[in-house]
Amino acid sequence: MSYIEITGKCEEVDENSYTNPSTGEIVTRIRLSLVLPTMRDRISCELPLDKAPKPDLLDRWELDEAWVVVSAESMRALAFERLNARAGEKPVGAMVVFSAVDVREASADERKRLQEERKAQKLLAKQRRAARQAEKAAAKRTAAEPAAETASKKQPA
C-alpha cells in the first residue's frame, strides 16, 4: 500500500548498503534522486533491492533523465548539524528520505498532464506578479497625488 506518490525526473541512481546492527545482515537499497520542477532541492527515495527495477532499466532512466512515478509508504527525516552554516541558515537541518514500494516510468499522458499543470502554475504566478505590480503602482500614484495637492496649495496665487 502506498500513501505518497511522487512524479519527478530521475537524475541519479545509487546502490548502497548498510549492516543491520541487531542482526548483522547486510541490507542493500537503491536510492533514486528525483528533481521536481518547482523545487530547488532534490527528493530522495529508497527502494529495497527486491522491489527495484532491473539495473539496466535504472541506468537508462538515469542517463535519459526519465520522468518516473514513485509510490512510497512512509518517509523519515534524518537530522544533521551543519559545520559551516551560511548566512541566514540554521546550524541544524534535516534530509527527508521516502521509503518507496514501487517505481515506474511515467506514461506519455502523465507527462503531458504534468506539463499542462506546470504551464498553468506559471501563468498564475505571472498573473499574481502583475497584480502586485499594479497594486504598487496604484499605491505610488495615490501617495504622489496628496503631495502634489499640498505643493499646489502652498504656492501663492
What are the SSEs and their pairings?
Blueprint: E1 4-19, E2 26-35, E3 43-48, H1 55-64, E4 67-81, E5 92-105, H2 108-154
Shape: elongated
Structure annotation, total helices: 2
Give the tally of β-strands: 5
Kindly estimate the percentage of residues that lie in beta strands according to DSSP.
Answer: 35-45%
Radius of gyration: 26 Å
Share of helix among residues? 25-40%
Distance between the termini: 83 Å
Low-confidence stretches: none
Q: Name the structural class.
A: alpha+beta
Subunit organisation of the chains: single chain
Main sheet summary: 5 strands, mixed, barrel
Give the strand line-up of the largest sheet. Answer: 1-2-3-5-4
Return the average pLDDT rounded to an integer: 87
Order of helices and strands: EEEHEEH
Describe, in short, the structure shown:
This protein has 157 residues and is an alpha+beta fold. The chain has helices at residues 55-64, 108-154; strands spanning 4-19, 26-35, 43-48, 67-81, 92-105.
If you had to describe this structure to a student in words, what would you say it looks like?
By secondary structure, the chain is α+β, with helices and mostly antiparallel strands. The chain has helices at residues 55-64, 108-154; strands at 4-19, 26-35, 43-48, 67-81, 92-105.
Keywords:
alpha+beta, single chain, five-stranded mixed barrel, 2 helices, 157 residues, 5 strands
